[in-house]
Amino acid sequence: SRAMLWPMSSRHILLALALLLVRAEALKVAVSGAAGRTGSLCFRRLHKMPGAEVLGMVRKKTPELVEKLAAMAPENEDVDSCIFEVDVTKGPEELTKILSDEGVDALMIATSAVPKIRKRSIVKSVIAKFLRIKGVRPSFRFAPGGTP
Q1: Please, what is the end-to-end C-alpha distance for the chain in angstroms?
Q2: In whole angstroms, what is the distance from residue 67 CA to residue 110 CA?
Q3: Which CATH class is domain 10-109?
Q4: Neighbours of 91 (CB within 10 A)
Q5: Pairing outcome for strands 27-32 and 52-58
Q6: Biggest alpha carbon–alpha carbon distance for the chain
Q7: Between the N and C ends of the chain, which has fewer C-beta atoms within 10 Å?
Q8: How is the chain split into domains, by residue range?
Q9: pLDDT in tens, the chain (148 residues)
Q10: What residues have CB less than 8 Å from 1, skipping those under 6 apart?
């Protein structure tokens, strides 16, 4: 199957965060992929916004990871209690339970996977370009168990 990648710029992320916090009352936001590049940016920015209570969701909760995320939160916050280990690749049950139990208002999905380009698709794309055939694009795949 083909995968198209739509990168989010920092402006798009900030806009999404701002839209989440438009409401007057406190908002509880869960960030999936909180340990990753985009997820940790969202986790850090949300902690700086007044009225946001932030939960981090990670695939594997380790002391090092909790320490990394604690550095992004206010000093008086017990980050360990707001980091949850959730593997979304095993189905929605675990995630749904945490969201419900914790009373989460919004879920920011910042998980990702790294696609690998199909080498044959590069050859097809180059040949199509040479023959001036439009609409032929490279295709990508994800490693087993690595879909976003």
Answers
A1: 14
A2: 20
A3: alpha beta
A4: 9
A5: parallel
A6: 63
A7: N
A8: 10-109, 115-148
A9: 334 444 455 666 666 666 655 554 678 899 988 988 888 888 888 888 877 889 999 988 999 988 888 888 877 678 888 899 988 777 788 889 999 999 998 888 887 667 788 889 889 989 998 999 988 888 888 777 666 5
A10: 139, 141
* Amino acid of residue 137: R
Give the β-pairing of 116-117 and 140-141: antiparallel
Between CA 82 and CA 30 the distance in angstroms is 9
If 0-12 CB within 10 Å is exposed, 13-18 middle and 19+ buried, where does residue 125 land?
A: middle
* pTM, full prediction: 0.62
Identity of the amino acid at 30: A
Say how far apart CA 11 and CA 5 lie, in whole Å. 17
